[in-house]
Amino acid sequence: MIEKSLLQHLLDDTELTTFLGGNKIYFQRVPTGTEMPWVVFSVAPGGVRERISLKYIDAQDIISFEIEHPQMVAGREIAEKVLRRVENYRGDLSDDSDIHITCSTIRSLDGAFASYRYLFNAYVRYKEVIQFPSS
Fold first, then answer.
1. φ, ψ (nearest 5 deg) of residue 111
2. What is the bridge-based pairing of β-strands 25-27 and 97-103?
3. What is the full DSSP assignment across 38-88?
4. Which residues, including other chains, have CB under 8 Å from residue 53's CB and lie 6 or more apart?
5. pTM of the model
6. Span 42-47, mean pLDDT?
């Protein structure tokens, strides 16, 4: 499960969690009552899977990252730390193997409650073991 693998990979970065003021990295939604800054990521629809051998599938997903912070410069610094943590990653993570990640540039939008929102996409390619339905 690529979501679990990426979440653990990001939470393992103590410098990043220190900048965030805690383990404020979430999949899909930020819990109610959480104070900024935070990192939230989600898997965009439309990923592809292709069989590459008798045992493996090559999977490709786009993961979108959003970093929200009340301060412009500090928010951008966190976005760059997240990007550096995942960009050009090559190897295995907790649940997935042969992962390769490339990233888009960081862009920005006006955030909620006068905050700054930074966004980028990660293009993740990884290998999955083929699962067959039981008969």
1. -90, 175
2. unpaired
3. EEEEEEPS--EEEE-SSSEEEEEEEEEEEEEESSHHHHHHHHHHHHHHHTT
4. none
5. 0.90
6. 88
